[in-house]
Each structure stands twice: as structure tokens, then as C-alpha cells.
Amino acid sequence: MTQSPNTDERVAEGRAAFARHDWQAAVDGLTQADAEQGLSAPDLIDLAESNWWIGRVDEALAVYERAYSAALNVGDDVLAARAAIWLAFSYPEKSSVSNGWLAKARRLLKDKAQCVEHGMISQVDTNIAVAKGDLEVALEHAGRTYSIGEAVGSADLLAFGLFDQGNVLIAMGKVEEGFPLLDEAMVAAVSGDLHPRVMGTIYCAMITTCTRMADYKRASEWTDAADRWCGRNSITVFPGLCRVYRAAIMRLRGVWDQAEEEARLAQETVGNVSTSALGEAFYEIGEIRLRVGDLEAAEEAFRQAHQSGRDPNPGLAYLCFRQGDIQGARSMIDRAVANADWDQLALGRLLPTQIEIHVAAGDHSGAHEASQALEKVAETYGTAALKAEAASSSGLVAIAEDDVESAIALLRSGIRFWQEVDAPYEGAMARVNLGRAYLASGDRTTAALELESARATFEQLGASPDLLRAQRLIEESVPAGAAIKTTRQERTFMFTDICRSTDLMEAMGDEAWEVLLQWHDKRLRSLFVQHSGEEIKHSGDGFFIAFPAPSDAAECAVAVQRALDEHRRTAGFAPQVRIGFHQGKARRRGSDYFGRGVNIAARIGAQGEAGEILASSQTLAACGDGYDTSEPRAVRLKGISEPVEIVSVDWRQRDPA
Q1: pLDDT at 75 over 90
Q2: Which of 161, 362, 380, 474 maximizes the CB count within 10 A of its CB?
Q3: pLDDT tops 80 at residue 320
Q4: What is the pLDDT of residues 590-624, one digit of tens each?
Q5: pLDDT per position as a tens digit, 12-24
């Protein structure tokens, strides 16, 4: 079919736009030319690639398939194989469709002279061997990729071959041999010498390796370089991947709000382009939610990470541990460690959690064995973060084995390494264990110093569960006969209580009641965290919470009743809870509050009926408009000399915040 002059111009403009990485202009020009006269197979590949870079993945796949058919129709098997390979790369990772397109490419190239496409297949074979743990075979494939690149003069294949050889050598523990090859490949990647998709693939693999090694300095440097390259070349997808790794670095450095924002932006950017990146973004959100104590949101994020193909451990196992299911957590982390037995870098991420869980389970020999394995990983790869993990974990094991002096030395070393990495949360966790070690040695004064430092860090970060644990340990560190520091503070105090809990337990039986109680505790704790509440006490079927402002308490109370009501409608049953809150001044002693403000809140809560929210009128008035209430009524509360005016909040009429 003869093309019109206008069509020829549009094809030329589309090709030029593709060459300068103006993806939208390339899509516009080539799509119009395609609609008028149809495009050749090479131009269809360019159109598909341009669609992919602007996030139109479905359109890209459809055009790649047309390019494959067009190449076959003109007898160009090599070009058809190229289209098949790009199709395989464009489908979600490890899908059967991807494998099918790779099989087509292999068949088409079987009897062809050596070409770039053979090298691309060799690069795929490298990754397949790595996934199986066949590192020697993977190294052979990577060397073949490089050799093909030399023979056909392909910068893309040379970079792939260099990088893959370096990556496999690092997986073998040959770090000094491997990293120079990775850095050399990355220089080629960000210099603009490579196909954009090749650059992106190498970058992602580089940052993955750095993250697995806990080499955050190198990861940060290459992320910045890749970001600049993406900006120069109008790339929108790989900045999304950059955001995932930036989120991990921000999380480590304690900037959790920004880290979560980066991870959520990454989810929007990568979309369905990369399921592995999407899974990593969900995992990062899970880790952050776990640290702030929002266990329900953490569990959901880990579940979505798993659905996207990302192993949710060690985060999910640690979440299970935090929820009190030590045996379930132990089973989960042990299985994850067993599945990663050949992958030393994966073990480096899993072993610290396995050690903590085994110590909590009383399996000191298992914890000791795991700590020795972690020390070996740290010695092999030598990054400060791995050394910090190894020292901190070994210190925890030493505490369990009553070797207090060794524990103190190891934990002090771990803290120094965490400071070098600039990881405040991890350093504070090590300080908590160091405080415990000093307590065990009888040095309460030094224990208090370490625990107070950890407490201040947790408070600054917003790590509510760890803050509470540190405060309770601080109380234990006070020398006998010494007074715990008391301060006077104004807070809004809330009390929740399950109504008729004894009758429910009797009717349901111990096992069913325990399951229900675990759900109740987890759901309410998640809501407390979301509304800035600090858990002060948990009495078994009720909570004592302190909020910074009355509006936080009011919105949380409404959210609790709505969550229980929703569970009642969807699952068939949820306990009836009464809630009372009041703003007032109280004395804070360690992790506890006491005084008139607390007493009034507790007595108001005790006045409530099942499913009711009660508040002092003055406290609800400070929350602003938007709450429907009963008429105020004055009540006499036990231990309070003057009547207190209270109202009942109609949470069903409250507009969602």
C-alpha cells in the first residue's frame, strides 16, 4: 500500500520523536499514520514501546502483538523474535503468557545467525538460573550475554552481561569482584548509551541488590543518578521505581510520613507495569504501618504485597509476633528462612526477625544458630547495616543466655553501626535491649539513660507501641526507693469496655472468645493509632487511651462504634462496647496517668450502655460542630464531689471525618 506524503511525514515525525524519547509525540504521530495507512513491523515496535513508556500498557501489548504478526508476514523471523521478547518483558513477571512469548522467540531464533536477540534470550536465561539458585549456571549465561554483545557490537548486551556477572558474583559472596562490574554497567546505563528499557532493568536490579545488601549509600547515589537520567529522557515509569527505593531509604532514616507518601506515589506511577515494584511499594507501606502500631493496615499492605508476588516476610512474621501469636510467627519466619537457604542476602533480611522470635519463644539454641548465620552474612558482605543487625541480634541472644557483659558490648557496637547508617528506629530498638542488659547487670542508672534515649526517639518518630514498651522499662529501671519523675499534663482520656464480657465468654467458650477478643483488640488498636491515641493500659476487654485533643478522641470513638457495627453486619457478630471520654489535667508517672481527669473519664465510661459513646459536655463542645447528641444531663460520679454534665453522642448520624 502506497503511503501519502502526509502519512510519510507523520511516520518521520513519529520516528524522530521516538529517537529523542518524546513518547507522547511518538504515540500521536505513529498512531495517526497507522490509522491512515498502517505501519511496518519496526514502526509498530516503536509505537508499542512509546505506549509502554507513557503507561498505556494494554495498548503497548496489543501493538507488540501486531508487530510480531507483521514481521512474520514479511518473513523476518528475527524481528518477530524481538517483538516476542519485548512482549515477554512487558507482561507481569513470571506469568505463563510471558513464558509463552519467550518460547516463540527461542523457536524463531533456533537456526539463525548470532544476533542481539540471542543475547536477550541469554540474559533471560541468567535470571531463570538465579531464581533457581543455580549461580554457576547463571554466571555462564551472563558471560555468554557479554560475549554475544562483543560479537554483534551491542552496548545493551555488554551492559547486561557486565551487570549480570557482577550480580551473580555478589550472590556468591564475591563482593569485591562483583561490585566493580555493577558500577561499570550503571555508568553505561545512566550515560544514555543504552535502550531505555535496558537502562531501567539494570537500574532496578542494581537498587534491588543494594537494598538486599543494606548498602543504602550506594543505593541512594545511583537512585539520584537514575532520577536525573529519567528527567532528561521524559521517563515516567522508572521514577516510580525510584520512589519505591527512596521510600525504603526514608523509612530507614525515620522520615516515615514522607516514606509512605513516596511508596503510595510509586504505586500510582508503576501501576501494572511492574508487579514486583508494586509489591515492594505495598511492603514498604506495611513496614511503616507496623512501626506506628497500625497493625490492621500493616496486615492489609503485606497481603497486597504477597498478591503482587513480593514475599511479605519478615514484616508479616513480625506483625504476627507483635499480635501475640509467637508460634505462628515462628512457623512463618522459619519457613521463609528455609526457602532462602541459598540466598545469603535474603537471609540477611530475614534472620534478625527469626532471632527475635526464637528468643521470645524460649528457643535460645535456635536463636544462637541464627545469630551465627547472620554474623557470617555480615562478614561476607561487610555493610554497616548488616554489621549493625548482626551485633544487635547477637546482643539480644546474649541477654537470653544471661551473658550480660557480652550483650552490653555487642549492643553498644550495634548502636554505633546504626548511627553510621543513620537509622534512628533500629538504633533505638538496640538501645532498648541495651537498657535491658544494664538492668540485668544491676546498673539501673545507665539503663535509665539508654531507655530514655530510646523513648525520646520513639516519641519523635511516632512509634507508639515501642514508646509504650520503653516507658514501662523506664519505670523498672528506677532504683528502689527513688521517685519516678511526675509531670502534669492535659489530655483527653478515653475508656472502652466490652459489655457483658463474662456472659459472652461463658456462652461462646474460651477458644471462640479468645479469637473474638484478638480481633477486637487488633481492630481498636488500629483505630487508636489512626487518631493519634496512646494506649496507656489494656485490661483484658477494655482500653485506657490518651489523646492530644478532644476531637481526636471523639472521632476515634465514632470510628470504633462504626467498625464494630460494620463487622456485625458483614460477619454476623461483634461485641457491644461502651465508650466514655473527658478532657482534663492529670499527673503522668512513667507510662501511666492518674488524677482527677482520668477518674472522671473512667466514671463517665462506666455510665454508658452497650454501643454508647458518652462524653462530658465541656469536652464535646471543644470538638466543634457536627455531632448530634442527647440533651445534657448532670450525673454524680463516684469519688467526684461535684456533678458532671454529660451527653450521649449519636455516632450513627455523625458525618465521616
Answers
A1: yes
A2: 161
A3: yes
A4: 678 888 999 999 999 999 999 999 999 999 999 98
A5: 999 999 988 888 9
Per the CB < 8 A criterion, the answer to whether 218 and 212 are in contact is: no
Which of 70, 75, 74, 22 is CA-nearest to residue 44?
Answer: 70
Burial 517-527 (b: 16+ CB within 10 A, else e): beebbbbbbbb
Query: Residue 23 is placed in which grid cell?
Result: 513518547
**Predicted confidence band of residue 378 (pLDDT cuts 50, 70, 90):** very high
Name the percent of the chain lying above pLDDT 70: 93
Torsion of CA 515, 520, 521, 524, to 10 degrees: 160
For the segment(s) 301-477, the CATH number from 1.25.40.10, 1.10.357.10, 2.40.160.10, 3.40.605.10 is 1.25.40.10
Quickly tell me which residue has 513477571 as its cell. Answer: 93
Residue range 242-289, pLDDT digits in tens: 678 788 888 988 989 889 998 998 888 776 666 778 898 999 999 999
pLDDT greater at residue 541 or residue 317: 317
Q: Which residue has the cell 492518674?
A: 594
Round to whole Å and give the CA distance between 412 and 433.
Answer: 10
User: Nearest 5°: phi and psi at 310?
Assistant: -95, 125
Directed axis angle between helix 23-37 and helix 5-19, to 10°? 150
Q: Kind and range of the H or E element at 536?
A: strand 534-538
How many whole angstroms separate alpha carbon 485 and alpha carbon 478?
10
- Checking if the pLDDT of 485 tops 70, the result is no
**Per-residue confidence (pLDDT) for residue 326, from 0 to 100:** 93
Just give the CATH number of 489-649. 3.30.70.1230
For range 179-198, the mean pLDDT: 83
The backbone torsions φ and ψ at residue 214, rounded to the nearest 5 degrees and listed phi first, read: 60, 35
SS3 per residue for 299-368: HHHHHHHHHCCCCCCCHHHHHHHHCCCHHHHHHHHHHHHHHCCCCHHHHHHHHHHHHHHHHHCCCHHHHH
pLDDT of residue 235: 64
- Statement: residue 83 has pLDDT above 50: yes
Count how many residues are written for the chain. 657
Task: Give the whole-angstrom CA distance, residue 647 versus residue 618.
Answer: 10
- Alpha-carbon distance of 180 to 218, in angstroms, equals 12
**Statement: 5-248 belongs to CATH 1.25.40.10:** yes
- Residue 1: the pLDDT is 45
What span, in angstroms and rounded, lies between the C-alpha atoms of 160 and 123?
Answer: 7
Q: At which residue does the C-alpha cell 552496548 appear?
A: 155
User: For the chain, what are the domain ranges?
Assistant: 5-248, 301-477, 489-649
Q: How far apart are CA 475 and CA 394, in angstroms?
A: 26
Is there a shared CATH topology between the 5-248 domain and the 301-477 domain?
yes
Rounded distance between C-alpha atoms, residue 29 and residue 31, angstroms: 6
Fill in the DSSP letter of residue 478.
S
The top-scoring range by mean pLDDT among 194-198, 403-407, 420-424, 442-446 is 403-407
What is the Cα–Cα distance from 425 to 291, expressed in whole angstroms? Answer: 9
| In the block, residue with C-alpha cell 454476623 | 572
pTM for the full predicted model = 0.69
Cα dihedral: 120, 124, 127, 132 (round 10): -150
Distances (CA, A) of 464 to 418, 540, 556, 577: 21, 19, 16, 23
Place of cell 552474612: 377
User: For residue 494, what is the DSSP state?
Assistant: E
Unique residue bearing C-alpha cell 523509612 = 251
Closest of 491, 497, 445 to residue 593, by C-alpha: 491
β-bridge pairing 613-616 and 592-594: unpaired
